[in-house]
Amino acid sequence: MKDSQKTRKQLISELIEARRQLEILAAAEVERKKAGQDLKQSEEKFYKAFRASPEAIAIVTAKDEKFIDINDSYTQITGYSREELIGNTSTSINIWANHEDHTKMRTMMQEQGRIYNEEFDFRTKSGEIRTRLFSLEPITINGEPCTIGVSIDITERKMMEKALRESEEKFSKAFRASPQVISISRVSDGVFKEINESFCRVLGYSREEVIGHSSTELGLWVKTGDREDIISRLKKHGRVSSKEYLFRTKSGEIRTMLYSADQIELDGEPCVLAVTIDITDYKRMETQALEAENLKQVDKLRTELLANVSHELRTPLTSIKGFATMLMDYDKRLTSAEKREYLETIDKNADRLVELIEQLLEMSRLGAGMLSIKKAPTDIVILCQTAINEARIRAPGHIFTLDLTPQLPKMSIDDRRIRQVLDHIIDNAVKYSNPGTEITLSVKKNNNDILFTVTDHGIGIPKSDLPRVFNRMFHSTLGQKTGVAGAGLGLAICKGLIEAHGGKIWLESEEGVGTKCFFTLPIESSYLKKNLDDAEGNSIVVVKKKRISASRE
């Protein structure tokens, strides 16, 4: 009985153990199947990645380097088909451009066990040499040791890198060797990042004194606003081309530079690449040449004027000489009235001679570009009132009218020169109109100018003469017929004086009806701003040499 019970217990225990073993085997089978499924999925993923990869991938045996498999990218890059590669080796189809690279690859695998991003040159089927970034890892395929190689074609990148290096080398050599002053500075603060040897030679600083310091810190700009002007032009136009600026050297010498610049990016920062040419000596020679030319022009003008007005000088001199001789030779035979008449003629001709000489001098200054303009704030109303009042005294037989627009502004002009213009135009109107006729001076604001108009009701000017009235030494045909004296310089001088102020002068006339002479003076004249000094009260303009054109006289 006891044996029977023991046998039953053992049987139950064995059954339980057998069941447990069955459960273990069942679980193991499940795990095996799951692992198989995972492996299958992994292999499927690898295969898809292998086929679809844009990188060239090849699997070769480790023993003899025979191709087992390649992807489509490999065939596209090399030009070989799968049939031409599978079962062959890289050496048998001569893929390696350099045998030394093949040896280097084998050595690296033996020593390191893998290769990562090494550059090698490979030959395509067409014979073209292409550079690839090559990686190699060991892999086991169906129990056989293999390697999987992945490569990226970087031929174009290498060519661009080479071109960039060559370009940088060329720029560097040109930068260093250029006779022009070249610098690179930051846009934000003007700190220099690079300069060439010409910069040091022309400005007198060493490289160490400049790099890391700003142009303002070094005091290079003679005018503090010039750098701001350059930055403004760069932002607006993208570059600066051939602008003249003044620079101060280390020794304090002021040099004139022709400055050009472009905005570039260096190390991620906006910078200014500036190229400047020292034109100081050229400007000096230009000034000397201009001065020499001015002297020639002065001499030429003086000769021409003397030749042209010799008869004008001779007439009053002859008159003075003749009447003076009569007074000396016939003193006792002449009556007091006759003596007074002769003296008045001598006085009149002396005044005429002085006026002519003054005009000659003015014309000489204008022609040589040596006329000075001294500006000062001037009340136009008072200037015109004075001119008309004195004209009434000089020509009491005429009727003078002044027409002024209210609230005329004060102007920065040379009042003596403008008064000279007004007097001459008014005197012309008197000469060429009959006593009792009206002469009007009107002044009004016309946009940004003040317009002056002198109107007479005289004989007028022939239409054919109008284009030449401002020419030097011009005499109107009507003036010659009427016997009105004149050297033909007055209106030429007026034109020069008005243009020196940045204004314009012109005539409108109708024969037998009268003449209107107009001239303008700018209220805010960019011409004066550019050419006049800012020295409080007075400043001087040197009028550039130019041909003077000008009427009646």
Shape: rod-shaped
Structural class by secondary-structure content:
alpha+beta
Biggest beta sheet attributes: 5 strands, antiparallel
| Strand tally | 19
* Stretches with pLDDT under 50, minimum 5 residues: 480-484, 525-553
The main sheet orders its strands as 2-1-5-4-3
- What percent of residues are in strands? 15-25%
Mean pLDDT: 81
Report the radius of gyration as a whole number of Å.
50 Å
What is the terminal separation in angstroms?
A: 166 Å
Account of the protein in words:
The chain is 48% helix and 24% strand. The protein is an alpha+beta fold and 553 residues long. The strands form 5 sheets. Strands 2-1-5-4-3 form a 5-stranded antiparallel beta sheet, with helices on both faces. The longest helix is centred in the N-terminal third of the chain and has 51 residues, at 2-52. The radius of gyration is 50 Å and the shape is rod-shaped.
Provide a quick synopsis of the model.
With 553 residues, the protein is an alpha+beta fold. The chain contains 17 helices and 19 strands.
Keywords:
alpha+beta; 19 strands; 17 helices
